Amino acid sequence: MVILPRRKEDRLAAEKILYETAGVQYTPDLKTLVWLDKNKYIRWVVGYNNFLGRSVQVHLGSIKGFQTRPRQLLYAALDYPFNVLHVNLLIGIINSVNKKMVDIALKLGFKEKTRWENMHDDGGLAQYIRIDGSAGLTQFDKDTKYSDTRKAVFGNSGDLQIYHGGGSSFIKDDGDGGLYLQTNGPAIYFQDTDGNALAQFTDGGACFLMYDGATKFQTTSDGISLSGNGYIDLPDNGRARFGAGYDLAI
Hints:
Strand 4 (55-62), helix 2 (71-84) and strand 5 (89-92) form a beta-alpha-beta unit. It contains 3 helices and 17 strands. It is an alpha+beta fold and 250 residues long. 15% of the residues lie in helices and 34% in strands. The strands form 5 sheets. Strands 1-2-3-4-5 form a 5-stranded mixed sheet, with helices on both faces. A 5-stranded antiparallel sheet has the order 11-12-13-14-15, with no helix packed on it. The protein folds into 3 domains: 2-140, Aminopeptidase (3-Layer(aba) Sandwich); 145-180, no CATH class; 181-250. 14% of the residues are buried. The chain is elongated and about 100 Å long.
């Protein structure tokens, strides 16, 4: 028989079957139907998630080695979303190496629209992009890659651009306003790729400039502190002045 699992342990069991057999990651909007055998063990699971408007993504999963496909399950797999969830479009994503699931989907009346080759070496499924209208966000669960000179552009006029090209990387502010780096942490750190410090700007404290990992310039509550054997280049007739009224000039 087909039921909507009510108990927490039944829902967790259904989610586990979907994850292990169809690679479906849990999402807060995931709803499941389960088919129980005569001993009331879960054998088949139909999952629905990623609701967007009146469309929903559908997933099928069964315990390993269980081949029977009850007609009651196939009917419920379509009746529940259309007549209970009130969607008008079901979207199924199935790995083509899972021949059993592809066959079931076609018998349910799904039409193959697009096929992506070499998406997973292990034959599994994973969520790559989630578009959530209720939360007002697009969520990426995998890395995104931009080719050389291709830009990530922000703002209505493309005011902020991040890109790589010509062997160098750029964060470019191309608008009328300023470029702000803000932190809610203790400081902003600049480091090389090995993690060696280049500069540190501390919130409410000293700021540092480094040379080869050693601090050479530091701000203090009284002014600045210089380390090492330093010198200051002044142009001809340039002066170093001291005192609040510049009483001493060199």
